[in-house]
Amino acid sequence: MSETSEARAILPPEEFIGKLTIDGQCIPVSLTASAGPSGKLELEVKPIVPSDCPRGTLARLRSAGRPGQLITEFSLDCESSDGKRLTSDRVALAGWRHNSEGFCTDLNIGEASLAMAANEAHDCPALCSHLLGFSCFPAVHVETPIGPVVVRGATRTTASDQITGWIAAIAPADSDSTTWRQSAENMLSHLRSVLAFARGAPLAAPVTEFGEGDMVEMKFQDTVGTHASYMPPISNLNLRPIVAAAVNNMGLVEDYREAFDIAIGWFLVPTSVDEVRFLSGMTVIDGLASRCLEESQISILGKSASRKLAQRVRALVDDQSGIDASKKRAIKEKTPELNRRPFVQQIVALLERWRVSRISIDDESLKHLINLRNKIVHQGGVPEHVELWPSILVVREIVVRLVLSMLQFEGTYQCYIGGRHMRHFPDCKPVQYGI
Q: What is the average per-residue pLDDT within 128-132?
């Protein structure tokens, strides 16, 4: 694993010989594999000689992807002259043609594994995820229960379609390799999610590298370039506190893993539409409330009392004269909502659950956000004469504080209410410079 991943070829062009397997039948192939600074694995296949192939296999290959065909992906297994082995079960035909040399194919590869000898033997197992468009200064080194974690990124360029940084974990001496690798994969996946949150945009990892002893295994995954950072909560010049919180407090998140991952996913939805920005943030808050609050914080009455009340309400509705059956049915279907606490109460309970500071977030602000969300959802847009941007900033601030609280983060973050400025966390008081 090099000191930097900036603008270098991950895999220089190299020739491989092997087979492409289609429904149990094999086609001999010779190809050149390479991966440039983007980490995308490219295959250039030499023309296939029809006489070298089992009968009917080329016809199957040509028909792949047509409507009604069951098999659209194939497997690949090949080796280079120096012993590198390239394998994949996600190879798809992207095009084909004939020429005088034989049957020519264009292949796309969704995922692949490359096993090879290491340039230098590893003293301890190590796992590294290469990141697209990632910047970080200075580099971060944090000790964790599973060994050191290192974060490096570009300091001058952040080309979104190039690998410009990486996150890595190094095993302690005498670690069980299999158990440690699974723990390291979970931690780096969590860390990448948190770093994406910190930069305010998805963070793609097209290449993952695992080294142990004298062997290296590289896994390639076809991804798209990352999106530009959008109102990042954490500056790329101050990533150490968020990295430390992510890796050392990961266990605290596990009880709410699904809620946490869904929240990050919605927070990072790339869009240029303000209504989507606003609704995505409100969806995060709603999702965290439904998954993290106790039932008593969501419902007004217990289940037994709620059922009895619902029965009485339905009976009362049935006893009303002058209301036709369809209207009565519609009213009774709304009965369960009577036991649901107002959304503003759920948000307040959520903020209290995670001990989130209420600075700049009062009850009136919350009620305004909820009313605005309802109008956008039911009317399809922002009401006339309503400025949406200030509400987007408040919603985003609430989400940022909730996520940082779940991570038990301590440090400074970037707040955008009233203009970009730094605040301390967890008290959320503005940073006073020169004092």
A: 95
8 Å CB contact between 45 and 213 = no
**Do residue 230 and residue 308 come from a single domain?**
no
The verdict on 56 and 147 lying in the same domain is no
**Neighbouring C-beta atoms of residue 308, cutoff 10 Å:** 12
Shared domain for 108 and 176, answered yes or no, is no
Q: Is the pTM of this model over 0.85?
A: yes
Q: How far apart are CA 188 and CA 27, in angstroms?
A: 38
Q: What is the DSSP string of 213-251?
A: TTEEEEEEE--PPPPPP-S-SS-TT--HHHHHHHHHSHH
Domain boundary among 339, 359, 393: 339
Radius of gyration of the chain (CA): 27
- DSSP-based three-state secondary structure for 371: helix
Mean pLDDT of 54-58: 77
- Residue in 266, 259, 264 with CA at minimum distance from that of residue 290: 259
For CA atoms 313, 318, 323, 327, give the dihedral sign: positive
User: How many residues does the structure list for the chain?
Assistant: 435
**pLDDT tens profile 382-402:** 888 889 999 999 999 999 999
Q: Which helix (H) or strand (E) holds 329?
A: helix 325-333
**Does 419 lie in the same domain as 291?**
yes
Contacts of 129 (CB under 8 A, 6+ apart): 166, 167, 168, 188, 192, 205, 207, 208, 209
Band the pLDDT of 1: cuts 50, 70, 90: very low
User: How much of the chain is in helix, strand and coil states, percent to nearest 5?
Assistant: 35, 30, 35
Q: How high does pLDDT run on average in the chain? A: 90
> Domain containing 328: what range?
303-339
Nearest to 132 by CA among 167, 168, 164: 164
